[in-house]
Amino acid sequence: MNSALPATAAPHSMALHMKGISKRFGPVQALSDVTLCARTGTVHALVGENGAGKSTLMKILAGVYQPDTGSIEIQGQSQTLETPGQAIEAGVSMIYQELDLAEHLTVAENIFLGAEPKGALPFTVSHHQMVAQTRELIQRYDFDLDPATRVETLPTGDCQIVEILKALRRNASIIVMDEPTSSLSERETARLFDVVRQLREQGLCIIYISHRLEEIVELADEVSVLRDGQLVHSESITELDIPKIVHHMVGRELDDFFPERSLEIGRPLIQVSNLSSPAGVQDVTFDVRRSEIVGMAGLVGAGRTEVARAIFGVDKKTAGQIVLDGHELNIDSPRDAIASGIALLTEDRKRTGLCLQLPCSWNITLPNLAEIGMGSLIKPAQETRIAAETGDRIAVKWASPRASTESLSGGNQQKLLIARWLLANSDFMIFDEPTRGIDVGAKAEVYGLLNTLAEQGKAILFISSELPELFGIADRILVMRRGKLVGNLVTKETTPEEVMHLAAVEEG
Ligand SMILES: Nc1ncnc2c1ncn2[C@@H]1O[C@H](COP(=O)(O)OP(=O)(O)OP(=O)(O)O)[C@@H](O)[C@H]1O
Ligand SMILES: [Mg+2]
Fold first, then answer.
1. Alpha carbon distance 342, 236 (integer Å)
2. How far is the CA of 214 from the centre of ligand 1 (A)?
3. Residue 440, C-beta contacts closer than 8 angstroms, at least 6 positions apart
């Protein structure tokens, strides 16, 4: 018998039953009549394209949003979840992608935040008990964490473990994870999977949202698919595979996932020689030709983003030369880089990319006013039209270009960033993990877009942690390891194994 199971719950009894849930945001019907059942002791994957309604459904479960219609049962008990506090009380813990920890507090303080054990004197907290109980929790799950460590010093993977411990301390019976692996390294991901399996063993119900369908196949017991706010399919993983899941998600086959590439590769457009930067880039040399897509592989922390930052003038290079179209560039800032015809699409849309409070259209056009011929005079109608056309080219799903950027689903925010650079007329474009957090359909659109840009004679550097997409679209693959370039391979003449080996193995 499993002691963590609630006394009344048989294994695989219904942990969660959301019935007939609908939710509208202004003109957007985010959810219509969704019924979702998830059982105890299972990992239940929730998948769907960007904007399908996954996060909205889970925010309703977490008491963040109120549904317009519908009801929720947890462990067979009907529940009203009007605040996040009520949801926690009912046994639901949500782990958001942007983790919700108090950075300056310790692991133990975070786990007990708001529920600190009382000390001997009134109005005091027993630190001793807090640390002891945290240690016990950590040991029970065999984690490697010190209760006294401040959270700000922990890597992302450990912060997630702290969130999970916080949920366990509150006796959660349902834990929701919304894209938990998108900023984890491969090692951290493997550990998270172990933890999730352990929680399942203990009889918890894990609702797992991810765009990485390989993960779903590896981890989930059951899969529910949302499309345009409706639950279109729910089935055991044993009956499903990736193509079937994709079919349910997009409602059609995606056979031309990667575009056909048969371009005449031109002369070198950009030559980077002996580039070094204070962020750890060491002596990196490569070129990218016109109409060429060069992929850049490497493990998290290998220095790929740092190469992009050094080229783009975010980090000052300490050595090296950048020649674009035969001219040596002197780049001191991103502004210089843009003026020289270099674009950088960054991976972190929240921190380095978008102003969430502004309308979507502004996020597309503002950095490009000069290019679209609006120096100091902005004509709103024209501005909206240009943004609408550009957004439509990559199928941004929005109520209108004037909608606030905040109201867009995560993946659609990523598309806004891409739209922005479509307007800028740059010859050399660096894409840093452009498909992170976007759905399969949108991924195919991004690949098509990279191909179109290459066809226009642009040179493209495509940084990605996903080897299949590098192999699907890149003409050459550069491999980074610890700030150094350790491989420069023609895609057709190499294998994923060779790339992984170069990325991971230290020479003796
Ligand atoms: N606070 C809000 N205000 C207005 N519209 C919203 C709000 N939150 C979500 N929406 C809209 O509801 C729809 C569903 O969004 P949701 O975030 O649930 O999608 P998702 O499936 O989580 O997508 P992603 O995979 O991109 O994270 C989208 O069209 C989104 O723009
Ligand atoms: Mg979401």
1. 47
2. 23
3. 49, 211, 213, 246, 249, 250, 254, 257
Considering the entire predicted model, what is its pTM?
0.73
Q: In this structure, which ligand is nearest to the CA of 212?
A: 1
Q: Summarize the confidence of residues 60-75 as an average pLDDT.
A: 96
Terminal-to-terminal C-alpha distance of the chain? 49
- Edge-to-edge strands, sheet with 205-209: 92-95, 174-178, 205-209, 42-48, 222-227, 230-236
Q: What is the CA(52)–ligand 2 centre distance, in A?
A: 8
Nearest ligand to the C-alpha of residue 211? 1
441 within ligand 1 shell (Cβ under 6 A): no
Task: Please write the tens of the pLDDT for every residue from 336-375.
Answer: 998 899 998 876 655 557 888 899 998 888 877 766 666 6
Residue 410 CB less than 6 A away from ligand 1: yes
Inform me whether the pLDDT recorded for 441 exceeds 90.
Answer: no
Does the beta carbon of 408 sit less than 6 angstroms from any atom of ligand 1?
Answer: yes
**What is the amino acid identity at position 300?**
V
Domains of the chain: 1-91+173-255 (3.40.50.300), 101-170 (no CATH), 266-341+426-508 (3.40.50.300), 355-424 (no CATH)
Residue with tokens 């992302």: 156
Report the DSSP beta bridge partners of residue 14: 39
